[in-house]
Structures are given as C-alpha cells and as structure tokens.
Design a protein that fits this description.
9 helices; globular
C-alpha cells in the first residue's frame, strides 16, 4: 500500500465536516457599538434631567447588579467550555449533526437546557462547537425559549395547572422543529460546502 506523499498531506478535517462560520468573535461588534451609543445618549438625558447625582445613582446600582451577575456569566461560560471538551464529538455529530435528519431536530426540541440564559446559551454554543448543526441547535434554543421544560415544571404547573401546561407544550412542540428545519435550509444556502477535488475534476 503506497504511503501518502508529503506533497499530499491528509486533510485536517473530514470531507463531510461542516464549515463553522463565526468561530472568531470580535470583542467589539456592531451590537456593542449600538448599545454604547444608546447608553451615552441615555446618560446625557438623565444628566440633563437629574444632574450628576442621578447618573451616579444609576451607575452605583448597575455596578452592584453587574457584580451579582458576573459569577453566573463566568460559571455559564466555564460550563460551556468544559462540555465542549467532555462530549464525544462523533456521537454529538451523529445525533445532532447535519446528517441527523428529523431525529436530530426532535432530539434538539426535547433537550432540556439547564438554568437561565447564563447557562443555556453557553451549553448550546458548546454543542454547536462539537458537532451539532445549526438546525438542531436552533431547535434547542427555540425549545428552551418557547417551551422551557424546567420553567414549566417549577412555575407553570403550580400556577396554571397541569392541563394548561401539557396542552401548551403539545401545541408548541412543532415550532422548534419547524425553526430548526428552516435553519438548516438557510444554513446550507448561506454556507455551501466546498467542492471536493474529485467533484471539481
């Protein structure tokens, strides 16, 4: 069996692997700039109405709020990073990858993402990094946002009752699947796979 020539090294990724756009996140993007401009305008309006004391009161309150939120953000980011290292990439790609079909969307819809946004989004991002495709991840996030199994058990059933909660979940179940399928449709067209060398010849 001939050994591979050094001129033709083995590909770093599998031919069927999916391109992952947006891996490198810029520290300052358009959303950050827009929010900063809105904050500056709001600060000027508050200063004109209440003076420097009003601005300082808001800053003091927000700094204490930020101090309480920061540990949760850090814990969520660490959780996502650890999950991306622990989860087996092949199994995640097989269950939630681009070739998982309808079953991947159903698994994403039924997945219970933990906690609030500080943990749910890092976990979803970690799954996306280890092989889950856009469709399954969209189904997860939409399911967590729309259905919220944990919130339903902790809050909705005690307040709204079991019948209301179950029917609301049943009626909402198709929506994450549809959103995930549409996500796959859009993703394939926005980020088409590069042609292999055999296909180009």
């Amino acid at each position: 069996m001939p050994e591979p020539s050094p001129k033709d090294p083995a590909p770093a990724e599998d031919a069927d692997s999916e391109p992952r756009p947006g891996r490198v996140r810029k520290p300052i993007g358009w959303s950050t700039i827009i929010i900063a401009v809105l904050v500056a305008v709001s600060a000027v309006l508050v200063w004109r109405r209440d003076g420097a004391d009003g601005v300082l009161d808001i800053l003091t309150h927000d700094l204490s709020l930020f101090g309480g939120i920061l540990p949760r953000v850090l814990a969520g980011c660490l959780l996502g990073a650890f999950i991306s290292e622990i989860l087996p990439h092949e199994k995640v790609s097989r269950s939630l990858g681009p070739k998982s079909g309808l079953m991947g969307l159903l698994i994403g819809t039924g997945a219970i993402l933990p906690g609030g946004p500080f943990t749910a989004y890092p976990v979803a991002s970690a799954l996306l990094a280890v092989g889950a495709d856009f469709g399954a991840t969209i189904a997860m996030v939409v399911s967590w946002t729309l259905i919220g199994y944990g919130r339903a058990v902790a809050w909705e059933i005690p307040i709204m009752g079991t019948d209301f909660t179950l029917w609301r979940i049943v009626i909402s179940l198709p929506l994450p699947v549809l959103a995930g399928a549409l996500g796959r449709f859009v993703y394939v067209r926005l980020y088409p796979k590069p042609l292999a060398k055999d296909d180009e010849n």
